[in-house]
Amino acid sequence: MTGDSFIVRAVRFAAAAVGCTALGLFSLMMLIVSGFEFRSFADFFTALSSVLAVVTLMACAVSAEPDSQGFTWMRGVPTACMVVTGLVQTGLLSQLDGQVRVFLMIKVVYVMLPILMVLDWLLVPGIRTRWTR
């Protein structure tokens, strides 16, 4: 399967749209509840890696050549970040209690996105380069 197939592009676009919506709703809820500040949101690695994953998925969905070497690198970095985010969420933060709406948004951003990024990386590998001198 290649990155320029319609199905792959549609799944990437849908995942980016869902992730963007969840991040936006989470930010809006934080603004309403506690006076949201972007600076405090951007302090967290998990939040920044989620934004990076959404931007990467959207860029790969609309790009002319999503299988190029540049896009392979561009997909690799957020995939690695989202693996760490998923592990942190699953191992450390999953036991925290919260409201149902916030819980669902957190599951979308910190569980669904890492799984989709890893599946995207494994099922649509892009161009693999050899490390040479």
Please explain how this structure is put together:
With 133 residues, the chain is an all-alpha fold. Helices cover 75% and strands 0% of the residues. The protein contains five helices and no strands. Helix 1 runs antiparallel to helix 3 (45-62). The longest helix is centred in the N-terminal third of the chain and has 29 residues, at 6-34. The protein is elongated. The two termini are 30 Å apart. The mean pLDDT is 79.
Alpha-carbon distance between the two ends: 30 Å
* Helix and strand run: HHHHH
Strand content: under 5%
What's the overall geometry? Answer: elongated
Main pleated-sheet profile: none
Care to count the β-strands?
0
For the residues shown, what is the average pLDDT? 79
Q: What's the tally of helices?
A: 5
Output the structural class: mainly alpha
Approximate helicity band = over 70%
Radius of gyration from the alpha-carbon trace, in angstroms: 16 Å
What are the low-pLDDT stretches, counting only 5+ consecutive residues below 50? none
Summarize the SSE layout with pairings:
Blueprint: H1 6-34, H2 38-41, H3 45-62, H4 69-93, H5 100-123
For this entry, give a set of tags.
133 residues; mainly alpha; 5 helices
Summarize the structure.
This protein has 133 residues and is mainly alpha-helical.
